[in-house]
Amino acid sequence: MKYDLTTLAILLAVAEEKNLTRAARRRHLAVSAVSKRIKELEDQVGAPLLARYSRGVELTPAGQSMVFYARQLQAVLGQMENELADYGGGIKGHVRIHAITSAIAQFLPRDIARFVAAYPLIRFDIEERVGSAVVQAVCDGSADLGIFAQQTPAQGLEVFPYRRDELIALVGRGHALARKSRVTFDEIIEHEFVGPHVDSSVHTLLTTEAARRGRSLAFKIRISSFESMCQMVEAGLGLALMPRALAQPHLKGTGLKALTLNEPWARRDLLMGVRSLRDATPTVKALLDSLSGRGQAD
């Protein structure tokens, strides 16, 4: 079937106004013209799209389905127009990235800088989110590319390897474990934790590992910032697990010590996710190649 974009826009106006007269006024059309367009669309679909009442109209199940897809189509067309406008203005694309803190703090700045050196006119919107929110943003189209840890369920996204980081145990100098250089999870599980946000990938990893041992963790404090976690640990409020690279700047001249976590899962993979590689823009595909290393020169 071929659908007329103007008719679909009229249907969206009717769905939002729930009134043919107001929808006609909004679209600068006669009410009869709106009714004719909706009737033609219903004939094309083979089912009523609106239930008509004296007080206005409501969508039928078929109408709700059509409005859902019409809105998606409208969003895609808007994205296409923005992308083409970028090209017309001399800009070669626009990429929206949502990523976890570990990726943004450790890897993305240098990786994006390398990509921009090759494609200097591309624009980026980068937002820091917990893993589950990153995946959701890619799923609902709010982000073109997401970066999250392997422990975060990908919900059907196409995923690709990005980087690997290492989790360490961070303790204050006066902590009972501070004399050690390496610890196991069984050793630290006995102590109070300064933990991350409950939706974060680190929290998921910790609680999963504790559950495997039939244990639960004692979270003294939960806080979303790694920098604030370091401050809480230094104040003696518990120990924390975090990426080594993020803890490193806080070790010198402070009362903190990083302990190697002697667990295979402490070395975790970070992943990149898109809704569909086939449907991704050329700009996003080029960025994926660059971030995965395929786009780098030997």
UniProtKB/TrEMBL annotation:
Gene3D superfamilies: 3.40.190.290, Winged helix-like DNA-binding domain superfamily/Winged helix DNA-binding domain (1.10.10.10). Residues 1-60 form the HTH lysR-type domain. It comes from the Bacteria. The keyword DNA-binding applies. SUPFAM superfamilies: Periplasmic binding protein-like II, Winged helix' DNA-binding domain. GO terms for cellular component: cytosol. Keywords: DNA-binding, Transcription, Transcription regulation. Pfam families: HTH_1, LysR_substrate. GO terms for molecular function: DNA binding; DNA-binding transcription factor activity. Belongs to the LysR transcriptional regulatory family. This is Transcriptional regulator.
